[in-house]
Amino acid sequence: MSATTGQMHEESKLKRAALHIGLFALFFALALLASGLLVFAVGGAPTEVLGTLIDGSLIIDGAWGRTLAETAPMLLVATGVIVAFRSGYYNIGQEGQVGIGALFATLVALQMPGPGWFVLIMALIASAVGGGIWAGIAAGAYFLRKVDVLISTLLLVFIAPKIILYLTSRESLLLDMSGSNSRRASQSEQIPEGVRMPEFTIFGNTMDFGIIGAVVAALGLGYLLARTVWGLQLRTLGLNERMAQRVGIKPARVGGGAIVGSGAMAGLAGGVILLASAFRLQDRISNDTGWDGLLVALVARLNAFAVVPVSFFFGILRRGSSSLRATGVSQTITDIVQALFVIAALLPAAIMIVRDRRRARHLAALATELETADD
Amino acid sequence: MIDDISTIMDSTIRLVNLLMFAALGEYVAERAGTINISLEGMMLGGAYGAAIGSSELGSPVAGIFCGMAVGLLVATAQAHLSHNLNANQFVVGLALSALILGLTTFFFIEIDMAVGRIGTLEIPLLSEIPILGKAVFSQRWLGYFTFALIPFVWWLLQRTTWGLEVRSVGENPAAADASGVPVLARRRQAIYLCGILAGLSGAYLSVSVVGSFSQNMTAGKGFIAIAAVLFGGWRLWGVVAGAALFGLADALRIALPAVGVQNIPGPLLDSFPFVLALAVLLVFATRARKPAALAEPFVRGGG
Predict the structure, then answer these.
(1) Same domain, A286 and A216
(2) Are residues A254 and A116 in the same domain?
(3) Are residues A191 and A222 in the same domain?
(4) Å from A145 to nearest chain B CA?
(5) Mean pLDDT computed over B37-57
(6) Residue B135 and residue B122: Cα distance in Å, rounded?
(7) CB pairs below 8 Å between A and B: how many?
(8) Which of B37, B90, B271 is closest, CB to CB, to A162?
(9) pLDDT, tens digit, for every residue of B135-168?
(10) Which of A220, A348, B38, B280 is buried most, with the most CB atoms less than 10 Å from its CB?
(11) What's the rounded Cα separation, in Å, for the pair B33 and B292?
(12) What is the mean pLDDT of residues A98-115?
């Protein structure tokens, strides 16, 4: 009897994995199909939209390099999201942390004397510090004053761009007073050439080193989570705060560190945006990179290896969406695809749970039947 | 001076109503154990649904019902994903809010709208009261629902069996389950009510306060409403006070430049409601006792 149940268990384990992967493929396909129907509903041609997206992000000359450059900040953000969420603290304020990171990088890049490479490194460090401080407010509010991390990080999202707007609209502060900004738009001066992120070119595609750093960060985090004491502590804390405390893990240190660390990653993403593509600070500098990175981590189910391909996919959507105007379909269709993907990624696990529930009920019924037969 | 104060009161009442509808809904959902961050999406969807309904059906009242229906639709998705399929409620909330923002923007560009607004109802005599009278007793009629909704929610949660069960599944779902309360069903129902009220809040914004729809017009007000519930310490009167306080803050943000206060820089003034929300949470959050099972998923026989 026990041998047969054991066998059944082994069998279903393999089948389960296959089923799980199959369900992911199915729901992602359904999400794309639903988006196609939306395009169709507003009178667009889904195939044309898809073709334009892929052309603009992968096919035309130099496109995939720009897509990779666009991917880097999102991947950095997503890596940070994994750190926070795995520790059980829902830092969802990346959009604000990206902005504050860019602000700190701007201050250093414009003010600090010294050779370009040195200022660049210091600016990147400053961006991480900035994002870390912004998230640190939420960490402090939670561990000292019990304010929910979810809501405090969210509120900080709305404060960050206002601070940047204030600083970049004041003559005495960061407002660009040079001739190139004769209309006095709220933005900072340009970052000098020497302080920008170096670029490299392969197969005619130019990109900055941000993407390499971001991939290394994601893979490194995957290793740290799976193979180190810190990773184990973080995951234990995420599963049960009280249990973690009992085995000697200090939530304020490990969890607070995770919140600040995730903010630092988002801040660094802001630094990369500033120093690799935007070159000036303005309040909308993040341009939803924080939100998109958050969604990347959710679609990847908080897996540090899966965020790499998922962020590239999001990069394709972001990059490709700017060429959609020619098709007459609103580029917000890509935002819808992203959100649908998050929901699609939730469903396989959910369906497995429902299936398990049914099987358990079925087995229980079977067991009762056997028992009554024995009697 | 008196004129300035009544100008500020005027917009305060509107913003308080707006936050109150949503915060009361969120309050019910949170008492049942869900931090429902799709509230922002429910409000935005409600605002959009009401605007479309009012414009297409030619009646603002029909629009309001459309808004509530959209809120309920979002609530159904949130409720079933988080309290039937066991998906993480925050992830569901974020995804739904992002989806609604995307959808309303996508279809907004495609559709021309002529949104009808609901009428003003003036209560004689009471509206003559100086300062407060005109603001409170001469407003578009949906605003008066606030007076009815607060006691209704109190009665529902404190004086009905359903309310007792809702509170019990937020405090101790295992015990509630053992005594025969359908835990997941109650949690879902609390979210449905939240969706209807958040939809009403959105509808109030588009067909009463503004009279049109614009992209992302809720602009974080849903999150402020959630902060009001936290500020209120999950007690009804606290939530009402929170909605009133944050409504006043939002009104000051809009009204101060209009009444001649020019020396506060615009961007800093704009961040005021959010800074205030954070500041009061820092002061008051430690005193509150949240529902014991808040944000804890319920699995029968599990942890």
Answers:
(1) yes
(2) yes
(3) yes
(4) 6
(5) 95
(6) 10
(7) 135
(8) B271
(9) 888 888 898 999 999 999 999 999 999 999 999 9
(10) B38
(11) 8
(12) 96
